[in-house]
Amino acid sequence: MKPFLLLGLCLLPGALLAAEPQPAPAAKTSSHAMVHAATIQWGDAPPSLPPGAQAFVLAGDPGKPGPFAIRLKAPPGYRVPRHWHPTDEQVTVVEGDVTLSMGETTDAHEADFVPGDYVMLPAHMQHEASTKNGAVVQINSTGPFEINYINPADDPRKQAAAQTK
């Protein structure tokens, strides 16, 4: 019996070491992004936004789960009707002027923003955006990107579908 006890005692430290929690393998880090403003090649904005704007994805994929950053270029007089998103939206004005009406229509407050200004719109906060002279804004959020218009008739996707019928 003693040899089995001795063998067990000899193996115990190894078993205890093997049972210690091991560090998890390092998570794959996402790649970095570097974008020079002069190299941006604007494309059409997503169909969920009114026609006329252009967009460029800086990082991430707005259509998939996870963080993303996009730039949106709006022409003079552009307006995105009152809507909300299921995730927080961070907006930084890069160029031009932006007016945001934030909150439900009955309690909405409006503010004007210029280059360098920043706004954090919490998830589900109703808001609308417009520009008098045109603007470029950077939007940081978490995907998948969704936009829910308060008035369904304002949704450009529904307007486009109605025009194709």
TrEMBL record:
> Locate the ChrR-like cupin domain: which residues?
31-137
User: Source organism's superkingdom?
Assistant: Bacteria
Key word Signal present in the record? Answer: yes
User: What keywords are assigned to this protein?
Assistant: Signal
List, alphabetically, the InterPro entries matched.
Answer: ChrR-like_cupin_dom, RmlC-like_jellyroll, RmlC_Cupin_sf
Per the UniProt entry, the signal peptide is 1-18
Signal recorded as keyword: yes
Q: What is this protein called?
A: Cupin domain-containing protein
Report the source organism.
Lysobacter yangpyeongensis
